[in-house]
Amino acid sequence: MGIIRKTKSVKTLLNEFNKNSSAISVTELITRLNSKFNKTTIYRVLDKLEDDGVLHSFLGKNGLKWYAKCNGCTADNHSDVHPHFQCLDCGKVDCLSINITLPKIPNRKIDLAQFLIQGQCDECLT
Amino acid sequence: MGIIRKTKSVKTLLNEFNKNSSAISVTELITRLNSKFNKTTIYRVLDKLEDDGVLHSFLGKNGLKWYAKCNGCTADNHSDVHPHFQCLDCGKVDCLSINITLPKIPNRKIDLAQFLIQGQCDECLT
DNA sequence: AATATAATGCAACATAGTTGCAATAAAAAA
DNA sequence: TTTTTTATTGCAACTATGTTGCATTATATT
Ligand SMILES: [Mn+2]
Ligand SMILES: [Mn+2]
Ligand SMILES: [Zn+2]
Ligand SMILES: [Zn+2]
């Protein structure tokens, strides 16, 4: 079930994601909003925003959970099958709007795929 | 640093991986060998076997750590950049010997990539 | 303003993984 | 074979991420 009431925590979290287009890890959000909201609230709001098709989640380095804004998703129609890029220098994570071609695998049904690419981002390269 | 002494735990763990070619999660190994070895030992031996190029590790569903046998790797030359497939029905994880073509990303340097595909395995399909 | 209930905070819990240190066991030396 | 060296182990305590139940609070509706 998604979000029903526009509470302070919902507005604050949405605001964090509107600052720029980068993904944000849950631990980073908890650190940032530590004084304002309980971590349980943050986990729950993020979960609902994902249900609503506002955010999508994925696992970054070390299996940490990250969230990023969706692009034209709705509650019934999520389509966030794109690779993610994590910079090993600064830690920043971005969604890559690249069409990844899933390999054909005999005798197996593919439901979903997650692709995490690691290296150095544009800013850290120079 | 890798393995120096062929201890019971080393032999036992290698034996687990020689039963078949599937990957094994650390938690599964801890459960299996619970009565014989401490979990700390298991974590440490796996870590060393990876250093030696005997096993390689990756993250499966929920960010859990999995290990699988390497194929012709040495301590100085690991090359385990292949996709992994996890069955959502039985949980089994396999290495896919498929050559994945990394997408070209402008202004970024790619160091490594992990590709986890989820769905149904051959056995669970029928 | 009164009501219904979604959302929150808190404490307690679950699980994966790590660390320091004393005790043990494998390999080398005697 | 016995002694010595030190790599490895077990244990307990810890860190970190994430979850759950329940009483309290805040939002939206009447
Ligand atoms: Mn994304
Ligand atoms: Mn593999
Ligand atoms: Zn960077
Ligand atoms: Zn299966």
Which helices and strands, and how do they pair?
2 copies of one chain form a homodimer.
Chain A: H1 8-18, E1 24-25, H2 26-32, H3 39-51, E2 55-59, E3 65-69, E4 84-87, E5 93-95, E6 109-120, H4 122-125
Parallel strand pairs in A: 4-6
Antiparallel strand pairs in A: 1-3, 2-3, 4-5
One zinc ion binds at residues 87, 89-90, 92, 121, 123-124 of chain A.
Chain A binds a DNA duplex (30 and 30 nucleotides) through residues 3-10, 26-27, 30, 37-41, 43-45, 63-65.
What does this structure look like?
The structure is a homodimer of 126-residue chains. Chain A is of the alpha+beta class and 126 residues long. Chain A has a single domain (8-125), classed as Orthogonal Bundle (Arc Repressor Mutant, subunit A), CATH 1.10.10. Helices cover 28% and strands 25% of the residues of chain A. Chain A contains four helices and six strands, in the order H-E-H-H-E-E-E-E-E-H. Chain A has helices at residues 8-18, 26-32, 39-51, 122-125, and strands at residues 24-25, 55-59, 65-69, 84-87, 93-95, 109-120. In chain A, strands 1-3-2 form a three-stranded antiparallel sheet. The longest helix of chain A is centred in the middle third of the chain and has 13 residues, at 39-51. Chain A is globular. Chains A and B meet through strand 6 of A and strand 6 of B. Strand 6 of chain A pairs antiparallel with strand 6 of chain B, so a sheet runs across the interface. One manganese (II) ion binds at residues 56, 68, 80, 82, 84, 95 of chain A. Chain A binds a DNA duplex (30 and 30 nucleotides) through helix 1, helix 2 and helix 3.
